[in-house]
Amino acid sequence: MLHNFERGRELERERCQLPADYYRKILLLRTRTGEAPQFVLISSMQYVAVLDQEEILFLDAQGPRFVELAWRDFHPGAQAQLNAPVGYTCIYYKVQARATMARLQGEFYKSLALQVGRHARRAAAANVISLRRRDET
Prior knowledge:
With 137 residues, the protein is of the alpha+beta class. It is built from 2 helices and 7 strands.
């Protein structure tokens, strides 16, 4: 299924930080669901997040499919520790996007956690083998 979204002119961009646990959940969802873009409904704000391999787009779920803001250029390799925040670039395409961003990180995390829970890892069949020392045979 093909989805098209329009971006307006870039109004502003800034460097931001994403908590490490937040970034891990994004990676976990991508891993569990494969290559296809994922849609995460942020019902408390009536927004939709579209996760693909390069960026996360945020759109008003009730309006036309115009991108309000995007998160991209994640830099997990720049972390000094595994629990350190991950840097990214936030790009604003709408005037109200900065106000949206003020609530977005917290609300998106809640919706993301629900989505990850829905795509719980499926247990694979396992075989247990006996390991004996050579002198025990």
